[in-house]
């Protein structure tokens, strides 16, 4: 099984440098426009990253799953340009800039890991720009593909309710779409896990002109 490069195994020995925090579902971990200092590592739970429009509406940009980091854009100690909201009860570790400097002294290669993460987040953010005009099917497909790319795994640790909460859709809508995709052989879902069976076919839901032989964005 291929696992993400931001794994618990990689971060476990560094959690002692961070501050453990518990956030209840629907609470704001950090808010767009507020001053940031450091970043967060999601240990348990699920977090959605949103951007607030001038009309006060939230637009979903990304879903953060356990083993990934968030809030990294504030490492320059500037204001956050997104908000992070716990989609379910979550445990995070906050690492201040000073704490990260101490971590680098112990293991300098963490700088490469951080750079990779920034690059990945930028790609996800660019992908999210066009999501406003997407249909419900395209929206869910894009979310799953983004998670697949970040998580480097065909198996996505989400429930249908998690996906509905993060996408801003009803669970019935999500269920109907997933059931149709299951019949088409694109996904399987049970308990607390989705398995993307055919990522190329799922990608074609968003990009109809995509050739079916295109290499998968998920590591095999």
Automatic annotation (TrEMBL):
Q: Name one GO cellular component term.
A: cytosol
Keyword ATP-binding assigned? no
Task: Name the domain of life.
Answer: Bacteria
| One Pfam family here | cNMP_binding
Q: Which UniProt keywords apply?
A: Activator, DNA-binding, Transcription, Transcription regulation
**Domain Cyclic nucleotide-binding per the UniProt entry, residue ranges:** 20-121
This protein's record includes keyword Membrane: no
Database matches in Gene3D superfamilies: Jelly Rolls
List the Gene Ontology MF annotations in alphabetical order: DNA binding; DNA-binding transcription factor activity
Q: Tell me where in this chain the HTH crp-type domain is found.
A: 134-200
Protein name in the entry: Transcriptional regulator
